[in-house]
Design goal:
This protein has 115 residues and is of the alpha+beta class. It is built from four helices and four strands, in the order H-H-H-E-E-H-E-E. Strand 3 and strand 4 form a beta hairpin.
């Protein structure tokens, strides 16, 4: 598989992740009812577990149940892997994602909103 094919496959995986509606598991509904602080705590723990806490530029509460994460510069592959890890361990998934390509090879800036 060439590098271009691998990147296309990753882009398709991300498109599917964002556009495919999923039925949220009970764990997701319970996390949402506990509010943004519980979600922030889970996301912070997962960022530390993946050693991404130094790359996480900002985490802020938006309203009662929303949490926004901002990464100014992170590897695209590492970000996608982290989204997958968070979903597998907490059943939380981002509801909105904005990814902007950076000049460095494979690097992006990203914003993700969980609620």
């Amino acid at each position: 598989m060439t590098l271009v094919e691998a990147r296309l496959e990753q882009a398709q995986w991300l498109r599917d992740l964002v556009t495919t509606p999923r039925q949220p598991p009970a764990a997701t509904e319970q996390a949402a009812t506990r509010g943004a602080l519980a979600t922030m705590k889970q996301l912070e723990l997962e960022a530390k577990r993946a050693k991404l806490d130094d790359l996480l530029t900002r985490m802020e509460q938006q309203g009662v149940k929303r949490v926004q994460l901002i990464f100014e510069k992170i590897s695209f592959n590492r970000l996608l892997g982290w989204f997958d890890q968070v979903y597998r361990s907490t059943r939380l998934q981002p509801r909105q994602v904005l990814i902007v390509r950076q000049p460095d090879e494979g690097m992006v800036s990203a914003q993700a909103v969980y609620f």
